[in-house]
Amino acid sequence: MPDALPTPDDFSFDPTHRSGYAALVGPPNVGKSTLMNALVGRKLSIVTAKPSTTRHRVLGILSGEGDAETPPHQIVFLDTPGIVKPKYRLHEAMMHAVDFAVNDADVLLFMVDAAHEGTPDTAIERIGGRPAILLLNKIDLMPQEQALPLVAKYNDLRAFDAVIPISAKTAFNLDTVLAQILERLPLGPPYYPKDQLSEHPERFFVAEIIREKVFELYRDEIPYSAQVNIVTYEERPGQKDFIDAEIVVERDSQKGILIGKGGSGLKKLGQFARRDIEGFVGSEVYLQLHVKARADWRNREGFLRSYGYDV
Ligand SMILES: Nc1nc2c(ncn2[C@@H]2O[C@H](COP(=O)(O)OP(=O)(O)OP(=O)(O)O)[C@@H](O)[C@H]2O)c(=O)[nH]1
Ligand SMILES: [Mg+2]
């Protein structure tokens, strides 16, 4: 006799438990990744002051046991790249990531920058009958008397189930965001163990941290021409983990700028990246960086695929 098969009871869950996907969608640089990190309570998705930082669908999981006001829940957030008109195959792949997230979503969270209002037509087109919440972010930058009419204006569109002014940065109104999501999330069991925060492998986060530093330390086209691949990630018992990462750029001239005089640029990049990687993985690491030029990789399907993009 094999071991007893699990009884249905082993799969039973609290019938008041709510679970589902909440996709964060909107223009570049409005604060989507900042919000997901704030809600999940861990920096899972990189954030920079430059637009088009996020390139993938980044998953962040928020689980709660519930209390008098809140049901037990698991919200799986899908952070997405800012919506752009594709200029490169890379952009097309990024927009696929947005579409996949939107398709999977039980609740859509559209975000705009409150100070740069635009008609969220691209948002409204994508709702498709599902619950949709509009978040007016960066409200901390705006006097209150300007914020209230803005909320009224978006409510008048009657396209969204709720319009919430928030600040992802100062955590203003995030409790309202959670309450509004939970109200619209289907009943169901958790999809992931309740202590899990994401599902990407460690090497994904490490590559993203290095890319964040490229965005912070370099200007113009360099951040946009750069791709980070983890070549080796070796856990070494009793020693620091060994990470070998390659940074791919598009031209030899960019390679030169990235490396800097006598390697000073790459050294600084490595120091900043290593500090954050160690904070993320919780132990010391040995980080080795090198740079390669791959002409026009942003338009080349083979490269994009091997770098993990959905083309
Ligand atoms: N003042 C203020 N700044 C914010 C707020 N939320 C985000 N930011 C800043 O806005 C910039 C962009 O934030 P991100 O979270 O990277 O924006 P995003 O929408 O994920 O951007 P993409 O990934 O490029 O689409 C960063 O400099 C953030 O610090 C906010 O509520 N208030
Ligand atoms: Mg982002």
CATH architecture label of the largest domain: 3-Layer(aba) Sandwich
Strand order of the largest sheet: 2-3-1-4-5-6
Give the ligands present: guanosine-5'-triphosphate, magnesium ion
Order of helices and strands: EHEEHEHEHEHHHEEHHEH
**CATH topology descriptor of the largest domain:** Rossmann fold
Number of helices: 10
Q: How many domains, as an integer?
A: 2
How confident is the prediction overall: mean pLDDT? 94
Query: Termini separation (Å)?
Result: 48 Å
Instruction: Count every beta strand, where a strand is a DSSP E run of 2 or more residues.
Output: 9
Walk me through this protein's architecture.
This protein has 311 residues and is an alpha/beta fold. The protein has two domains: 10-184, P-loop containing nucleotide triphosphate hydrolases (Rossmann fold); 202-306, K homology (KH) domain (GMP Synthetase, Chain A, domain 3, 2-Layer Sandwich). The protein is 34% helix and 21% strand. The protein has helices spanning 32-40, 89-104, 121-126, 144-156, 174-184, 202-217, 222-225, 252-259, 264-281, 301-306, and strands spanning 18-25, 58-64, 73-79, 107-113, 132-137, 162-165, 227-234, 241-249, 285-293. The strands form two sheets. It has a six-stranded mixed sheet with strand order 2-3-1-4-5-6, with helices on both faces. Helix 4 links the parallel strand 5 (132-137) and strand 6 (162-165). The protein is globular, with a radius of gyration of 21 Å. It starts with 17 loop residues before the first strand and ends in a 5-residue tail after the last helix. The model is unreliable at 6-10 (pLDDT under 50). The structure holds guanosine-5'-triphosphate and magnesium ion (MG). Residues 32-33, 45, 53-54, 79 line the site of magnesium ion.
